[in-house]
Amino acid sequence: MAITDFFAGEIATELLRQLFTISAKAWKYKSIADRLIDMIEDIQPTIKEIQYSGVELPPHRQAQIGMLSTTLEKGKKLTEKVLSARRWNVYRQLTLARKMEKLEKDISNFLKNQILTHILADVHLLRANSDVRFDRVDRSLEMMTEHLGSMKIGGGGMIREAMKIAEATMEIEMGDDSEKFGVGLEIGKRKVKKMMFSGEGGLIGISGMGGVGKTTLARELERDVEVQGHFENRVMFLTVSQSPMLEELRAHIWAFVSGYEGVSPVPNWNLQYEGGVKTQKLVILDDVWTREALDSLTFNIPGCTTLVVSRSKLTEPKATYDVEVLRENEALSLFCLCAFGQKTVPPGFDKSMVEQVAGECKGLPLALKVTGASLKKQSEMYWKGALQRLQKGEPADETHETRLLHHMEASLENLDSTTRECFLDLGAFPEDRKIPVDVLINMWIEIHDLEEAIAFATLVDLSHKNLLTLVKDPRLGSSYASYYDVFVTQHDVLRDLALHLSNKGKVNIRERLLMPKREPSLPREWGRNSDKPYKAQIVSIHTGDMDEMDWSEFDMDFPKAEILILNFSSDKYVLPPFITKMKRLRVLVIINNGMSPAVLHDFSIFANLSSLRSLWLERVHVPELSNTTIPLRKLRKMSLILCKINNSFDQTGVDISTLFPKLADLTIDHCDDLVSLPPSICGMTSLSSLSITNCPRLSELPKNLSKLQALEILRLYACLELKALPVEICELPQLKYLDISQCVNLSCLPEEIGKLKTLEKIDMRECFFSDRLSSAVSLESLRHVICDKDVAFIWEEVEKAVPGLKIEAAEKCFSLDWLNE
Fold it and tell me: Which family does it belong to (predicted)?
């Protein structure tokens, strides 16, 4: 019998099962059965090692394993006879007892010959590289011994250190065609699927240390063909996080499992849903931190399965799969792929040093990815320095979290000072929330004095080094691309690293004053130190509803603050009074993470923000402007996202251009009550970029757009009610980019479009034009047009007349990613 056939048959497992039955039912054989159980349980890990190695053993080893196969097969048949023997047949009982004793002796003698030790060595040798020596095995065993010894509570240790790094680190995504390392992932999928398919719904879990690959396994299960088939493609994946918006998550889950959207309040989870569920459904809850959060998000609906992914064991042991770290050779392959772009060490590179660096990651997938990426394309001398830093370890009295963060700090050593500061800035944003690229780049432009192109390159560099995840978007990096609806994400532990490095020292002297997570109020430590000025340049606050009384304890002075980020979840919010003392404030970001736009109170404090250059308002009611509004004379960029405009722009007596005399970039996105723009907007002579996007009720543009002499970019994306462009648009002397894509009611471009001598790019996807543009042949600077295939013909003559013009026939693309927001 071939070795793979033997172990595939699971003879040992079946024999073990029958021995348990004998031990429980046949009291005469209990002591022998118990001893056999102990022996077989001891050799089962080795059996599984051989079973999943995928390696064919040499003939002499197969013969030895064949002997064991024959012995266990006889034992299996013997146990069947024992179970079927009649109690009154004393002679047969005695005969079978003696045969059981002989079986015990045969297996014991077999093990004493150390055959399994040789088999294990062969498996290890064949699975590793052919030139691996046995001294490496000894060294690995020493490392494992030291490692296991350091796993005592309070002792630290590299695996304990790595505990936080993956699960909380920014989500490092590998492509769909990436290699999957080790048998662990497939074993994990098989075991979790068995739990999923064997019951009628209920709660199951994936648990393990941080960074070990729990989310990766959950994502693989989400995409698995068998899982999709079993649940008929009804699978939902949600990230819960440490500060979850439970009501919002409950609403999403209820809409998914019941098919009823917009139900408020959500019904009691514990009530039986009488309508039942016609099909099986799977809800995957990733990054669950507490049992309380889990209890709020689980429910009693027939046919629904909930898969919980957490560092803690939140489900019953029998319904939990524990993820383990990678084996040594698997870890080395993953490390090499991230460091060299291949699964082996390149010829000529110091292999021993690579193995030592990879070994310091202790099999933790995320640590392998981050460390490998940080050393990519570095010299061997740099590698030696990195190895020395990794080998130093941390003081024994530090907690494993701090040790981990110090360990991961080595990944930042090869960043230049500015890029490192940009990485630290990421700690200013809430965990598990998408960060708008536009906000990040604008922050870096203002506080680090970067040009926009350099700020974008810094973002890409951090992404390449796996220090953040840049959400893929076809527009990203293209000329005239917009970034307000493109995002980055960062997994929790890399964010924790940024927070750890930023929060050193007393609160008054930190350059960044950041709240690690959402709290009902500001940290008490901030209030206790409010008698002295704060030196922070970046201040980030993350709370719920705040009123005057809540702010009264925090009369703080921020004379050096340049960036203020206010994250909250509420339908009303009082702005902090200490804003009036931020005389150097250049960037103000106000983001409401609640379900509906919030009313901001005490907006009058804006009168004191004489240095403000950038304003981002998200999901709030824009305050009404009037002639008494104090102008923001230095404001250059204003973004209104998911806001209620109300009557802010409807006051005919208000001159917008005098309130924002230096405004160069105005973005209004997803503001569904915007019907028209005020005529006075045409007086903004400094305006170079105007983006009015996803505003479905916008029906017309001001007639005097030609006064915007500095306008270079005009985006009107997805303004569904916009029926025509004013002919004055053809008089814009600096216009380089026009985006009218998804303006489905537009029937044509202005006939005099050819006057736009500086126009370089037009995006008109999903615009259904039928008339050719005779004057467009005069667009001498035009080099790129994006349109649907069925309207590309209207540009044929222009393509002949304008050298170098590219007509890109775009495929229709439908995405529901916006639902995640």
Answer: Belongs to the disease resistance NB-LRR family.
